[in-house]
Amino acid sequence: MLLAGIQAGMPRPYGMERRPPWRSGYAKSPIGGCVRVRRENLDGDGQADLRHHGGPDMAVLAYPQEHYARWRDELRWPDVPYGAFGENFTVAGVTEEDACLGDVWRAGSALLQISQPRKPCRNISRFWHRPELLRLVQRTGRYGFYLRVLEEGIVEAGQPVQLVDRPNPEWTVERATAARSCASRAPGEAQALLDIAELGDDWRAHVARALRRG
C-alpha cells in the first residue's frame, strides 16, 4: 500500500449567499511535506459537526485511490482532486473490499487502526453542487473508512503503508457496511459485528439501535 495523498482543512462557512448558511471542514487541501498525526486529528485539520464527526475513532478518514479513476470516468470529472471525498489519506492498494476492521497500519512513524466504515453525509453533494453524488457513493459502496491513531507520529505523502496486524480477516469494511444496512433483516450478522472489539463506538451505537428497533 502507498500513502498517495494527504489532505487537511479547517471548518469554514459556506452558502452565505443563501439561507441558511452551513459550516463544514469538508474542503481538504493537499499537504506538502511532513505532517503530524495526533489522537484526534492531523495538524491543520478539523471538523465543524463534532456530534457526527471527529473523535478518537474518526481521527483520520482514508479513501482508496482506486476509486478516483472510476469517478473521473463515470462523472466526466477529469480533474477531480485527491481529497474530493473529504479524506485525509488517499491510499493506494486497498479498498473497502479487502480492508478489514481492526487492521493495523504503519505509515511513517504513526501507527493507525481501521475502526469503522465511513457513512457519508449530504455535504458530499452540497459541497460540489452535484445533487446525485451522495446517492452514487451509496450505490457504489465507495465510502472510505476511518482510522484511529494508536501511536502519534509523522507522515508524508508518497510513503509506503505497511499492514502490521489483521485481527479480523473475515470482517471487511464492505461487510461491516452491509451488516449495518441490513441489521433488521439479518440480526445475527449485526450482532456478530458488535462482537468485534475494534469496532468504533459511533458505528457500534448505530448498529445496536438498529437491532433494538428490530
What integer is the average pLDDT?
95
For the record, the count of structural domains works out to 1
Instruction: Tell the overall outline.
Output: globular
Identify the CATH class.
Mainly Beta
The third-level CATH topology is M1 Pyruvate Kinase, Domain 3
CATH superfamily: PK beta-barrel domain-like
Please identify the structural class as seen in this structure: alpha+beta
Main beta-sheet strand count, sense and barrel state = 8 strands, mixed
Euclidean distance between termini CA atoms: 39 Å
Secondary structure: number of strands? 12
Biggest β-sheet: strands ordered side by side in the sheet: 4-1-7-6-10-9-8-12
- Helix and strand element order: EEEEEEHEEEHHEEEHHH
Helix segment count? 6
Low-confidence stretches: none
Helix percent reads: 10-25%
Radius of gyration (CA) equals 17 Å
- The second-level CATH architecture is Beta Barrel
Beta-strand percentage range: 25-35%
What does this structure look like?
By secondary structure, the chain is α+β, with helices and mostly antiparallel strands. It has one domain (2-167): M1 Pyruvate Kinase, Domain 3 (Beta Barrel), CATH 2.40.33.20. It is 25% helix and 26% strand. The chain has helices at residues 66-74, 123-128, 133-140, 173-181, 187-194, 201-213, and strands at residues 2-8, 12-14, 22-24, 29-30, 34-37, 60-64, 89-92, 104-107, 110-117, 145-151, 153-156, 161-165. An 8-stranded mixed sheet has the order 4-1-7-6-10-9-8-12. It has a two-stranded antiparallel sheet with strand order 2-3. Helix 5 (187-194) packs antiparallel against helix 6 (201-213). The chain is globular and about 45 Å long. The model has no long low-confidence stretch (mean pLDDT 95).
